[in-house]
UniProtKB/TrEMBL annotation:
GO terms for cellular component: cytoplasm; nucleus. The lineage of its organism: Eukaryota, Sar, Alveolata, Ciliophora, Intramacronucleata. GO terms for biological process: endocytosis; signal transduction. It is an enzyme of class 2 (transferase). GO terms for molecular function: ATP binding; protein serine/threonine kinase activity. It comes from Paramecium tetraurelia. This is Casein kinase I. InterPro entries: CK1_Ser-Thr_kinase (IPR050235), Kinase-like_dom_sf (IPR011009), Prot_kinase_dom (IPR000719), Ser/Thr_kinase_AS (IPR008271). Residues 30-298 form the Protein kinase domain. Its EC number is 2.7.11.1. PROSITE patterns: PROTEIN_KINASE_DOM, PROTEIN_KINASE_ST.
Length: 391
């Protein structure tokens, strides 16, 4: 079996490419390579450092006249990332650059793609149960690390998990913290439970409580994680592809389907280990700490009889392995490729100049249930719409 990872050259081998119709400033040593994706509120570009000969990611937020009086979500994300500094599973930003018409963050680049892109490359466009169990372990570990820093992510979805480049391809990184929020105040007191907040996150994966407009906490990240893993395992969720006239009607149908699933009234293939973790997340109180250790132990038990380290995207004779003993998947990798891993991550220069290069804004259309939403629609409108549909 061949690996489904892209054939990635050493980053020092990437040639400098032409920039087409540039419209934003880049530091002088960077050259635009191509658009790499779309975040919850910004655009992602692959850029090349001509000095260090390495690839990096550049996340751009363009000025929106409708949000002139609101805090920049990119600046908010940068501040959150600085508070998450040192977590192995979270890419660390190199620099924040602020200009009048846009803001950008320069970050590490991971070349294997996100979980949605890797899913599409698998047989039947879905992951095996073995890979799902390993992924469950890795995703719990990443989310736990964020929760330990007093934040909830609030936008867990396949596109927000990146896999490291070849040589680092057992590592899964959690990205896009534009919707993240502290769940503890400065005194360590849990935020109060609240309603009428509006849905936050991505409708396809967000928790039932989020659909109902409730304040999110740690349990909601875990519930959303279970929907993500369920999607990656089946290649489709029962609440996809609804035909509706309005976004609100579509979101209500998604909510009803999730409620039926939670009540055991909706049939879908789900690995027993994932079902245990889902039930645990649904049984948590608003301010209750999840039992991360127990959930990871359940995953370990499921991996003992199969290849414990590799995913479906690995080659059958994968030579890159973590330490021989079972670990959390994110500690320092084996010495045979630890140096290679550092090369893949690249380094940034201490001084970044401000010569001008520019990038043209890019428009991308997404399905409504795949789009990240910040407190929309309001729960009062949902309730009223729902009542009207019942009568």
């Amino acid at each position: 079996m061949q690996t489904t990872l892209p054939k990635v050259r050493l980053q020092s081998e990437y040639p400098v490419k032409k920039v087409v119709s540039p419209q934003i400033e880049l530091p002088a040593e960077y050259i635009l390579v191509e658009k790499a994706g779309q975040g919850s509120f910004g655009e992602i570009y692959k850029i090349y450092n001509t000095i260090t000969k390495t690839l990096h990611a550049c996340k751009v937020e363009f000025k929106d006249s409708r949000q002139q009086n609101q805090q920049s979500l990119l600046v908010k994300e940068y501040n959150t990332l600085m508070q998450l500094k040192g977590i192995q599973q979270i890419p660390q930003p190199y620099q924040l650059i602020q200009q009048q018409d846009y803001k950008l963050i320069i970050m590490p680049f991971y070349g294997s793609g996100n979980l949605e892109e890797l899913r599409k490359k698998q047989q039947n466009e879905k992951f095996s149960e073995t890979s799902i169990i390993r992924l469950t372990y890795c995703l719990i570990t990443a989310i736990e690390a964020v929760h330990e820093r007093k934040f909830v992510h609030r936008d867990i979805k396949p596109e927000n998990f990146l896999v490291g480049s070849y040589g680092d391809h057992h590592t899964v990184y959690l990205i896009d913290f534009g919707l993240a929020k502290p769940y503890l105040d400065q005194q360590g007191i849990h935020i109060p439970q609240a309603d009428n907040k509006g849905m936050v996150g991505t409708a396809r994966y967000t928790s039932i409580n989020s659909h109902l407009g409730a304040e999110q906490s740690r349990r909601d990240d875990l519930e959303a994680m279970c929907y993500v893993l369920l999607y990656l395992y089946n290649g489709l969720l029962p609440w996809q592809n609804f035909s509706c006239q309005t976004r609100q009607e579509k979101f209500l149908k998604i909510l009803e389907a999730k409620q039926k699933f939670a009540a055991g009234q909706l049939e879908i293939n789900i690995p027993p280990i994932l079902k245990q973790i889902y039930d645990h997340s649904k049984g948590l109180r608003f301010d209750e700490q999840p039992n991360y250790a127990k959930m990871k132990e359940i995953c370990k038990e499921g991996l003992n009889k199969s290849r414990p380290y590799c995913f479906d995207w690995c080659a059958q004779d994968c030579k890159f392995k973590p330490y021989d003993d079972m670990n959390d998947g994110f500690s320092e990798l084996a010495s045979e490729f630890s140096t290679f891993r550092k090369q893949q991550r690249g380094q940034t220069t201490d001084q970044i100049s401000t010569n001008i290069k520019k990038i043209q804004p890019f428009k991308q259309i997404e399905e409504e249930d795949e789009e990240s939403i910040n407190e929309f629609p309001n729960v009062q409108k949902i309730t009223k719409f729902y009542q009207n549909k019942k009568h």
